[in-house]
Design the sequence.
């Protein structure tokens, strides 16, 4: 007989908070390093990312999307590709690749969830994609840019 260990809600919440803090620290490192080109900072610095994160959380809750950690990861990582591209339009694809590597190496989500997060990052600046996380991230990003 296998015994189930009850998880303490406080411990669970602390683990979630630590994971989100780790993701935010990585995003900040990627977007504020010495390699960041000044032109890419316009409207896309960490304050923008944090506003998109807040917008995305509100939208997800309003729409009943239950995976708020995935929302947080996608929102915090959605622009990390900007410092690494010559053409601004390439940043979602590059950002998704960087995000996937970071999330996998740190074992922050299972592979299927990483794929969902990265798909949202790839599509955040486009009008295609029909999954809820894509819509939440795109709408949250657009809301901040308006």
Sequence:
């Amino acid at each position: 007989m296998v015994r189930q260990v009850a998880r303490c809600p406080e411990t669970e919440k602390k683990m979630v908070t630590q994971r989100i803090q780790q993701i935010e620290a990585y995003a900040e490192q990627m977007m504020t390093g010495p390699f960041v080109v000044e032109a890419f900072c316009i409207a896309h610095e960490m304050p923008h990312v944090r506003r998109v994160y807040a917008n995305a959380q509100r939208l997800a809750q309003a729409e009943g999307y239950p995976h708020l950690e995935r929302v947080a990861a996608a929102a915090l990582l959605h622009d990390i590709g900007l410092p690494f591209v010559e053409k601004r339009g390439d940043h979602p694809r590059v950002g998704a690749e960087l995000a996937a590597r970071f999330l996998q190496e740190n074992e922050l989500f299972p592979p299927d969830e990483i794929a969902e997060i990265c798909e949202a990052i790839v599509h955040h600046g486009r009008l295609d994609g029909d999954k809820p996380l894509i819509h939440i991230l795109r709408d949250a990003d657009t809301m901040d840019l308006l």
